[in-house]
Design a protein that fits this description.
The complex is a heterodimer of chains A (263) and B (382).
Chain A: H1 2-17, E1 21-30, E2 33-43, E3 48-52, H2 59-67, E4 72-81, E5 84-85, H3 91-97, E6 99-102, H4 114-125, H5 132-145, H6 163-177, E7 181-185, H7 193-210, E8 213-217, H8 222-227, E9 231-236, E10 239-244, H9 246-255, H10 258-261
Parallel strand pairs in A: 3-8, 3-9, 6-7, 7-8
Antiparallel strand pairs in A: 1-2, 1-4, 4-5, 9-10
Chain B: H1 2-8, H2 13-26, E1 32-33, E2 39-40, H3 47-52, E3 61-63, E4 69-71, H4 78-84, H5 94-102, E5 105-111, E6 121-127, E7 130-140, E8 145-154, E9 158-169, E10 174-182, E11 188-197, E12 202-209, E13 214-223, E14 229-238, E15 243-252, E16 258-267, E17 272-281, E18 288-298, E19 304-313, E20 318-328, H6 331-338, H7 344-360, H8 366-381
Parallel strand pairs in B: 5-7, 6-8, 7-9, 8-10, 9-11, 10-12, 11-13, 12-14, 13-15, 14-16, 15-17, 16-18, 17-19, 18-20
Antiparallel strand pairs in B: 1-2, 3-6, 4-5
Helix pairs in contact in B: 2-5, 6-7, 7-8
The chains are: A alpha/beta (263), B alpha/beta (382).
């Protein structure tokens, strides 16, 4: 009886306070070279966290390592998602636990249609699977929100997509998969002004509805005007060298990274 | 010798078979050697066993829409015989001599002038034992159009199968000939397909090579008149110890003829593929366009592939392109799937099937396409 009580208390506390993505003293190697040299960060549901840093500071490496890319070796540290250690889990398990990565350069896959790919991905997470027809209805609705042409679903995954179309397809996946923690690696690069607005609205909609945490890597302030970041972290040479609120991002936009790096 | 063999066809079947048998006895087994250290050794293949175990009971079946004429070899007159058996001869090599020595099962398909056949002509062959030879002749008269689907299967009791296909596409005729080969992994398979394409005519060859222990596939198209055109789309998937020895050729015998060949294949486990794609453009064949490409995907460490493009162009006024790639599964592609929650083995399955999809979706019916997809997906899962 007592055991049950304790257990239910633990579960409740887990429900309230453990909902976060924590990375603790993370070290990451690529081809034998250490790129991430001890990073500790926490991301909270519903919040927008911006990662900034000059080229080569390790932003994409961190994103890929968090998602579980086999080329990025975690040599030390932990990744804890809602209290569960996922440091050693494969990418598909991390995705099932609620992690998502919007790729900076999405790869092209011949012969697999967007519709087939997306349905397989969405159904993997679901107890009750969508039929082809049911999924088609859902997909059409989500594509309309992002102002995507309906022919899109019949095309092969990212094949022959323009830069902007690829980014739109990534956000489409975000809105379909509704993850708990979404890492967006430069969702705005190579995208025109109007499209940034459409993408931002799409991201905002699902963030608000699902209490999603957004971890965004960007060089531009335009997307931040829509997403209104809560926290800003500056990455340099594989370490976090400064943290702050939206003001820090604005300062960097004006003055560049020099001021922060030389501090 | 050649004319003699031709004349005796059909008129006196036993005599023709006897001559082929003699040729078989006198010819050396060809070395399956393709330069640069590429060679296939068929140590276990015993051609004398083939002669000793001929399956005379089973026959190909044909389902043909109305209007298509099916003939037996005996029904062709002397002139027709000489014309329509002219592309392939028993004298060429020991395998062909063997073919004609054991051949009983002929199917002759005639598409009459100006006829567009509604729906596919379906040829089915299933061999349940021993060794068997089959010959198909397709005669597409002027302005005739048809799609032919040929499906072959066998049981593990079937030792050897040989097949020849000869297609004659007369002026403005359009023929699509699709083969889905799903023989047992115990069956040796020798296939020679040749087509002759006349003015403004087209032959499209589609090949899905999936089964057999060893497949020796040769597809050759003779472009003999102005604006003759051929396309060749082939896919293969091999597994276990299967060996596929594939060769497609476009022979541009006159000016302003076009060809396009694309082969895509997947080699898994200990299987092996040799693919040779050859374009020949003769000296006076100016203003030809020819393309040839092969893309091969090696899945396992011990899988092996040799892809050899051969370009023989004897004049400068042509547009040609050719290329061969041998690659492995792209890690980034797999990660893209797993990052979306899809399990790694399902990701691989989808990527491999997708790799072949540009060829699969060229097959004429949805049912056949689904059948090929299923064959491949089931074997990837294995």
């Amino acid at each position: 009886m007592r055991i049950t009580l304790i257990k239910s208390l633990t579960e409740r506390s887990r429900g309230n306070t453990m909902k976060k993505l924590e990375i603790k003293d993370l070290h990451v190697e690529v081809d034998g070279t250490e790129i991430i040299k001890g990073i500790t960060l926490t991301f909270h549901p519903g919040k927008v966290h911006v990662l900034m840093g000059p080229n080569g500071s390790g932003k994409s490496t961190l994103a890929n390592a968090l998602m579980g890319h086999p080329k990025y070796k975690i040599t030390k540290g932990q990744i804890i998602l809602d209290g569960k250690d996922i440091t050693k889990e494969k990418a598909n398990i991390r995705a099932k636990e609620g992690l998502f990565l919007s790729f900076q350069y999405p790869t092209e896959i011949t012969g697999v249609t967007m519709a087939n790919f997306l349905r397989t991905a969405v159904n993997t997470k679901r107890e009750k699977k969508y039929s082809i027809v049911e999924f088609h209805t859902l997909l059409k609705e989500k594509m309309k929100e992002l102002q995507m042409d309906s022919s899109f679903s019949k095309r092969y995954v990212n094949e022959g997509f323009s830069g902007g179309e690829k980014k739109r397809a990534e956000i489409l996946q975000l809105t379909l998969l509704e993850p708990k923690y979404a890492i967006l690696d430069e969702p705005d690069s190579g995208v025109d002004r109007d499209a940034i607005e459409i993408l931002s609205e799409g991201i905002e909609r699902v963030r608000k509805n699902k209490e999603m945490a957004i971890i965004i890597i960007t060089h531009y302030k335009r997307i931040l005007e829509y997403l209104q970041p809560d926290e800003v972290s500056i990455l340099y040479k594989g370490k976090i060298i400064a943290q702050g609120n939206y003001e820090l991002a604005k300062q960097i936009e004006k003055e560049g990274f020099e001021g922060v790096i030389n501090k | 010798m050649k004319t003699q063999t031709m004349q005796s066809f059909g008129m006196n079947k036993e005599l023709q078979k006897k001559e082929a048998r003699e040729l078989f006895n006198n010819l050396e087994t060809p070395l399956l050697k393709y330069g640069q250290g590429i060679q296939v050794l068929l140590k276990e293949l015993d051609l004398n066993q083939v002669i000793a175990k001929v399956n005379e009971e089973e026959r190909m079946t044909i389902e043909a829409p109305q209007g298509v004429i099916i003939r037996s070899i005996q029904e062709l007159n002397q002139e027709e015989l000489e014309t329509y058996t002219s592309l392939i001869s028993a004298t060429e090599n020991k395998f062909l001599a063997l073919h004609f020595a054991i051949l009983d099962d002929w199917k002759i398909i005639i598409i009459p002038r100006d006829m567009t056949v509604k729906g596919p002509i379906i040829i089915t062959s299933h061999i349940s034992k021993k060794a068997k030879a089959e010959s198909i002749i397709v005669i597409a008269e002027v302005n005739a159009k048809a799609e032919i689907i040929e499906r072959s299967s066998s049981t593990e009791e079937a030792y050897y199968k040989s097949q020849t296909v000869q297609i004659f596409a007369k002026e403005n005729a359009h023929i699509m000939f699709s083969s889905i080969q799903e023989l047992s992994p115990e069956t040796y398979n020798f296939v020679i397909k040749r087509g002759k394409v006349e003015a403004n005519a087209n032959i499209t060859w589609l090949d899905a090579t999936l089964g057999s222990k060893y497949t020796h596939l040769r597809v050759q198209t003779h472009l003999t008149s102005l604006h003759a055109n051929t396309e060749n789309y082939s896919l293969y998937f091999n597994q276990g110890k299967q060996i596929f020895d594939l060769n497609t050729e476009s022979l541009h015998k006159t000016r302003q003829t076009n060809s396009n060949m694309l082969c895509k294949g997947v080699i898994t486990e200990n299987a092996r593929t040799i693919y040779q794609g050859r374009i020949l453009i003769e000296k006076d064949s100016k203003n030809c366009k020819a393309k040839q490409k092969s893309e091969n995907l090696l899945i396992d460490e011990h899988a092996r592939c040799d892809a050899v493009p051969i370009l023989e162009v004897e004049n400068d006024e042509v547009q040609c392109s050719h290329g061969a790639t041998i690659g492995k599964l792209n890690e980034e592609n797999i990660f893209y799937f797993t990052a979306r929650g899809i399990e790694e083995n399902i990701a691989k399955q989808m990527i491999i099937a997708g790799f072949l999809e540009p060829i699969i979706n060229k097959f004429p019916t949805e049912e056949i396409q689904e059948h090929i997809r299923k064959n491949i997906t089931e074997r990837i899962t294995k």
